[in-house]
Write a structure and sequence with these properties.
CATH superfamily: Cytochrome c-like domain
Structural class: mainly alpha
Radius of gyration: 13 Å
CATH topology: Cytochrome Bc1 Complex, Chain D, domain 2
Helix content: 55-70%
Number of domains: 1
CATH class: Mainly Alpha
Largest sheet: none
Shape: globular
Number of helices: 5
Distance between the termini: 26 Å
Number of strands: 0
Length: 113
Amino acid sequence: MIKKYGKTIILSAMLAVVAVGSVASAASGKRLYMTCSACHGKDGKTPLMPAYPKIAGQNKAYVLQQIKDIMTGARANGQSVAMKGVLVSPDGKPRFSDEDLDVLADYVAKMAP
């Protein structure tokens, strides 16, 4: 199922990055979350595929650590491949600042589970 939707997921995520990336530093958590909603759902509870986690209300520190682990490659399971492409550019540079990631993790943690 992942292969069937893989290109669609990656394309959706990349389009979201293009839409948000240029204003990410000044963006609110809600605006940053637009990138995540392509796979995790607008509410963080209705993921695109059953293999993707429901993240709404998840602990802030946990969310932040998962993002960082995906960016560094410490977490590299099948689902994280698309996410790494959203978080890190092909040349290995982060697409979002540490401040952006902190704001995003805080927003996810405050979403209704």
